[in-house]
Amino acid sequence: MNTPAYPEFTDVTGVILAGGLARRMGGNDKGLIAFNGKPLIEYVVTRLQSQVNDILINANRNIRDYEKYGWPVVRDEQPGYNGPLAGMASCLFHVQTPYMVTVPCDSPFLPSNLVSRLYQDLLANDAEICVAHDGMRIQPVFALLKANLRDSILAYLGGGDRKTDLWFLRHRMIISDFSDMSEAFFNINHPQDIEEAGFTPDRMVT
């Protein structure tokens, strides 16, 4: 049987992770930082929505601002800003597709073929999780995973663990090589990254 090169859009739910504290950005809500008149998350929504069936936005503050984009906003089930895995687990309660792909809210150049490449590599290797690698490092929040892994994440978090990459290692994981487009994984972690991206911030949202 030939491995499909592209997923059916109905197979994948996109999750935009915007639930963090963004301490390195002074606590500003990164997804709502506006560049050239447009919030970061708007770039992400635009690039992701054509690759998936639907989108969930994981956020824990400024909920109404995120709701303006027309997609459901999911808060973490547990309070305390417990990291990306907590957001993934919370969204999996709402995912009704076989797969979920996650991306951060602060990567305005994410690949337009991200989902198809992750999906192809996952199926070709009979994996449960496929994670992007930009040629220099693994990018753990750019990941495609089977939606039936929710209970595994919850058990892992329940044991007091939070590190995404260590949870990945508990499952059949494959790395997807995106070294040909490493710049697409640029994200905004520090104020100086704003200038590097070539943007001028219009406002900061706390």
Report the order of strands and helices.
Answer: EEEHEHEHEHEEHHEHE
Q: Structural class of the helix and strand makeup?
A: alpha/beta
Largest sheet entry = 7 strands, mixed
Strand order of the largest sheet: 5-4-1-6-8-7-9
Total DSSP helices: 7
**Strand elements, count:** 10
> Helical residue percent?
25-40%
Written account of the structure:
The chain is an alpha/beta fold and 206 residues long. It is built from seven helices and ten strands. The strands form two sheets. Strands 5-4-1-6-8-7-9 form a seven-stranded mixed sheet, with helices on both faces. It has a three-stranded antiparallel sheet with strand order 3-2-10. The longest helix has 11 residues. The C terminus is likely disordered.
Question: Could you provide a short overview of the structure?
Answer:
The chain is α/β, with parallel strands linked by helices and 206 residues long. It is 26% helix and 23% strand.
Which features characterize this protein?
three-stranded antiparallel sheet, seven-stranded mixed sheet, 7 helices, 206 residues, globular
Secondary-structure topology with pairs:
Elements: E1 12-18, E2 34-35, E3 38-39, H1 40-48, E4 54-59, H2 63-67, E5 73-74, H3 84-92, E6 99-104, H4 114-124, E7 129-133, E8 138-146, H5 150-158, H6 164-168, E9 173-177, H7 191-196, E10 201-203
Parallel strand pairs: 1-4, 1-6, 4-5, 7-9
Antiparallel strand pairs: 2-3, 2-10, 6-8, 7-8
